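Morning, I've got a small favour to ask if you have a moment. It would help a lot if you went through both lines with me. Thanks so much in advance, here it is.

***
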Amino acid sequence: MKFLVPVDGSKGAERAVEYVIASAASLRQPIQIALLNVQWKVAAGNVKLFISQETINDHYREQGMAELAGARAILDAAGLAYEYHISIGNPAEAIVQYAREHDIEQIVLSKQAEAGLQSWLLGSVVSKVLHLAEVPVLVVK
């Protein structure tokens, strides 16, 4: 079974990874785990006049790797193989596109319990993924 776990560096994302690890023990088939971090596109309009594309790409890579670090450490400690990828763009659309392109069988993501704008944005991502995904989506609290 192929799982996709979108990761944003939060404790909720780590709980989603831990859920997949716990599920792996009960499945009778080998599993494949893909971690996906999506960076919001920050380079718009005239920004590229002042910052090189290489600098922008380095920023995306550094932020993505930092946000993937906790989930990767959990999977490394569990001894499970995984792959990871950093995308740039709208998180919900990138998650669904990745799932479609990589024949993912289930998306496991977290719903944040934080207040404010971040919660609203993340809640919006969860809602959009639930609406757009063509595969089962499990939301971990």
About this structure: Strands lie at 2-6, 32-39, 83-88, 106-110, 137-140.
